[in-house]
Write a structure and sequence with these properties.
The protein is of the alpha/beta class and 410 residues long. The protein folds into two domains: 2-198 and 389-402, 3-Layer(aba) Sandwich (Rossmann fold); 206-387, Rossmann fold (3-Layer(aba) Sandwich). Helix content is 41%, strand content 17%. The protein is built from 15 helices and 15 strands. It has helices at residues 20-30, 80-100, 117-124, 141-145, 151-167, 176-185, 237-249, 265-274, 288-296, 309-312, 318-325, 337-345, 356-368, 370-387, 390-402; strands spanning 2-6, 34-40, 50-52, 57-62, 65-70, 105-109, 131-135, 170-173, 192-194, 222-227, 254-259, 280-283, 300-303, 330-332, 348-350. The strands form two sheets. The chain has a nine-stranded mixed sheet with strand order 3-4-5-2-1-6-7-8-9. β14 (330-332), α12 (337-345) and β15 (348-350) form a beta-alpha-beta unit. α11 packs across α14. It is globular and about 65 Å long. The chain starts with a strand and ends in an 8-residue tail after the last helix.
Length: 410
Amino acid sequence: MRILYFHQHFTTPVGAGGTRSYEFARALVERGHQVTMVCGQGKHNGLTLEPDSRRGWLRGTVDGIDVIALPLAYSNSYSIARRAWIFLHFAWRSVWIALRQEYDVLFATSTPLTAAVPGIVMKLAGRRKPFIFEVRDLWPELPRALGMKNPLLLGGMSLLEWLAYRFADRCIGLSPGIVEGIRRRAPVGRQVDMIPNGCDLALFLPGKRGPLELPGVAGDDFVAGFTGTHGVANGLDAVLDAAAELKRRGCQHIKLVLIGDGGKKEQLVARARKEQLDNCLFFPSVKKTDIASITASLDCGLQILANVPAFYFGTSPNKFFDYIAAGVPVLCNYPGWLTEMIVARGCGAVVPPNDPVAFADALCRLAEDRLGTAAMGRNGRILAEAEFSRERLAARFMEVLEHPVKPVER
């Protein structure tokens, strides 16, 4: 089967970012399918491809995946207007590919929501190919919850969301809240599958634990780390608030390490410098093949988001699954499905949002009870192996693509 796969932010293991699409595409290739991945060319996605001047893109084979990369660099630090232009430009060029490529199934994954455009246009143009749409974040719910008020943008997103669910033959959601959100807007009877992010059990191994060779970290420090985007949605001021509370208490043996990039990073670094939070350390993005050993060497993984109710059940963060795969206990600062799992499986600690005292208390308890903390990490690894192995989830993903429902008559 020939699969045309659209993911604007596709990343390989030698890049810095989530590799869900890479892992799933590799599973399809190993099953004997042909996969053409259409993505953007970015500095962190780990792609080295040959330019095709006639087509105006880059193309090559990456571990059996045929990759077409459109030269549209993207960064979370760009302005909203610049990011919107990049999303629309990618969607427009993707439409051209969707109408001319030969394939059996068109698959598109958000974000952004504009990833659905080639599938929608393909259907409108009369190509009767199955279109499967994967939703990683609910738009416009999340932008609205984060404070976006532009009625034209929100209205456009709402219309695009409605069209995506109407024209998709099947949908995939990454969390319970996303699945529920799709069902609220999709036509009655539309099949929606939940396939969350998963754990790379071979890469993120507890056995990779070793001394953290990071400037500012001593051998006997308790290190709580955040690995991911430093954006508005991540709410990382909560980490700095906790750092300030720990410093007030004189707890210098607890270090808070933030690894990654994003639109808020410069502001966060400036705040830490101004408040002399030398217990809060910042480092640039690290490729996934290297971040695994760093993650395994943390004493605690920080699962942090802004206090937005839409996040509680509407996200499926890669970093959470990396932490538990690496056998690292998780400290989460918002309620929701991940919090319920952490409590039920004893694989970390939970604190209320916007409460730096409770956040610092939890870190102190984890630091003081190293044996108990290690047991939480082992529980996390057990959970990862039992429910979230990449192989298990890839098998469910392949089942969806190999048996798409009959296209709905319209």
